[in-house]
Amino acid sequence: MPIHRPAFRMVALVLVLALGLTLATPAKADAFDILTAVAIGTLVVAGIILVVYLIVANVHGSKMSEADAPVLVACDRPGSLKPPGCISPARFAI
């Protein structure tokens, strides 16, 4: 049984239009509950706090990596005060 192209396209178009109209029609309007409003508001505020926290942590993290770089101290001058844990470079001679 062959499918007639124009009739098949027409049926497909009618079905797509019916589906589109079904999805586009608004649902029954109910009263807006105060608990729903508080829940939505809480989620919005929590989302804003999370985004701000991540932005600040990202900016602070990039600045912290520059400031917390290890500082190398040379301890080879005789008679200078050596910080604790300072090893003379002569011990590293090959």
Explain the overall architecture.
By secondary structure, the chain is mainly α. The protein has a domain at 33-77. It is built from two helices and no strands. The chain is elongated. The model has no long low-confidence stretch (mean pLDDT 75).
Describe what is shown at a glance.
The protein is mostly helical and 94 residues long.
Topology diagram in text:
Elements: H1 5-24, H2 34-67
How would you describe this structure in keywords?
elongated; 94 residues; mainly alpha; 57% helix
The helix fraction, in percent, is 55-70%
Strand tally is 0
Poorly predicted sequence stretches spanning 5 or more consecutive residues: none
Main β-sheet description: none
